[in-house]
Design brief:
Blueprint (H helix, E strand, L loop, with lengths): L10 E4 L12 E12 L2 E2 L2 E2 L35 H12 L2 H11 L5 E8 L5 E12 L14 E5 L5 E10 L2 E15 L2 E16 L5 E10 H10 L6 H10 L2 E4 L4 E18 L5
Parallel strand pairs: 1-8, 7-13
Antiparallel strand pairs: 2-5, 2-13, 3-4, 5-6, 6-7, 6-8, 8-9, 9-10, 10-11, 11-13, 12-13
């Protein structure tokens, strides 16, 4: 069993396929965050997913009249209204934002890990499991300032654990969702557990064991507001105004407003291992 108290985890899962490893001889791959950022928007193009199944031109009431973006490959309906908010945060806080995130990764306080298990074929596999959790340990940092590959980490004892049993691999890309869960992230100087709803994950598997991950989801607007209010030396007024103005998911008909804002997180994951005790 893993060297953690599983009872202390917050486990969220979705119904999946009957058996992620019917042969009993499957591969497991894990990565740890080397870099984490929020996807931005340029000329109406953004990384992300169509989270709500609506291609909105800005007139749809279910999306609170927020226009969708195009994906880099031309996919319509990409939901990522947080891109506008992230641009505002970077403008207000400057380069310190990304520096805070990288500092948290380097000191081991923000080790977001993704583990894919039950891999029969790393190119095409119609049934794999995906776990998202926080790692623990002091990472080795290379001369480029990033985590080096092939390190082993514990699962953080108090980490939330999101499990998706209905994922697949297509042409070397892990696809999972929709699912609800919790993802540890950091915005400004505040580290917190981000609630994600109707989330989708896309992770391109690389030959060296690394993974480029795109994670899109709806995030409760109140959670973002709380984070902005908790940040030291930061004027939360602009952020709160933008959160309320750009919310585009989970419309509350009684309140006549959306209670979630779509967001896309980009993770550069270095190959890693998760420590397990021998049975």
């Amino acid at each position: 069993m893993r060297a953690i108290a599983l009872a202390g985890l917050i486990a969220l899962a979705v119904a999946g396929c009957d058996d992620v490893c019917p042969t009993g001889e499957c591969e497991t791959r894990a990565v740890v965050s080397r870099q984490i950022t929020f996807a931005t928007e340029v000329d109406g193009v953004s990384e992300g997913f169509d989270l709500d199944g609506i291609v909105s031109d800005g007139s749809d009431p279910e999306s609170c009249r927020q226009p969708d973006y195009l994906g880099p490959d031309g996919t319509e309906g990409v939901d990522n209204q947080f891109a506008v908010l992230w641009d505002a945060i970077v403008t207000i806080a400057g380069d310190a934002v990304e520096g805070l995130v990288q500092g948290a990764i380097a000191d081991g306080s923000l080790l977001l890990m993704v583990e894919v298990d039950g891999i029969d074929d790393p190119v095409y596999d119609d049934c794999v499991g995906v776990g998202i959790f926080m790692g623990a340990g002091k990472p080795d940092i290379g001369t480029d300032g990033l985590i080096t590959t092939g390190q082993t980490f514990d699962m953080a004892p108090t980490s939330p654990y999101t499990r998706i049993d209905c994922a697949e691999i297509r042409d070397g890309v892990v696809l999972a969702g929709p699912f609800d869960g919790i993802v540890p992230v950091q915005i400004l100087d505040v580290g917190f557990e981000l609630e994600v709803h109707d989330a989708h994950l896309r992770g391109a598997l690389r030959e060296d064991g690394s993974m480029d991950i795109v994670l899109g989801a709806g995030v409760p607007t109140q959670q973002i507001i709380d984070v902005a209010n908790d940040a030291d030396g930061f004027d939360a007024g602009v952020v709160i105004q933008l959160v309320n103005a750009r919310a585009d998911m989970a419309r509350d008909d009684e309140l006549q407003e959306c209670t979630q804002i779509s967001a896309t997180i980009l993770v550069d994951g270095a190959s890693a291992f998760v420590f397990e005790e021998a049975e």
